[in-house]
Write a structure and sequence with these properties.
Helix content is 13%, strand content 29%. By secondary structure, the chain is an alpha+beta fold.
């Protein structure tokens, strides 16, 4: 098993906190999952390998992004994992939040 640093972010898609609870009249909890390959093509420089003089020539381990979306009585919540060495920059996170709110 390869070492992996995973960034996990919980985004509340419609704002505000969400509490999942059960009651006789509660909507059933809905869940959806997705996974997509985010492996960059050969030829790009790799983050974290500053001593390497050449860009990547092949793929040793594929990288992926995964999402779990949950919806109960409140707004949906997404948990997203990325196979990255560091989290995305704040500007990208804000853009993703805006896109999720519009969906």
């Amino acid at each position: 098993m390869r070492p992996q640093i995973v960034w996990i972010a919980a985004l509340t898609l419609l704002g505000g906190g969400t509490v999942f609870h059960t009651s006789a009249s509660a909507e059933p909890l809905k869940a959806g999952v997705a996974s997509v390959d985010i492996t960059p093509p050969p030829g790009l420089r790799m983050w974290g390998y500053s001593s390497r003089k050449k860009p990547a020539q092949a793929t040793l381990d594929p990288l992926s992004a995964r999402a779990l979306v949950l919806q109960g009585d409140g707004p949906p919540v997404a948990i997203i994992t990325l196979d990255l060495g560091r989290p995305p920059e704040e500007a990208l996170i804000e853009r993703l939040r805006r896109q999720c709110q519009q969906a």
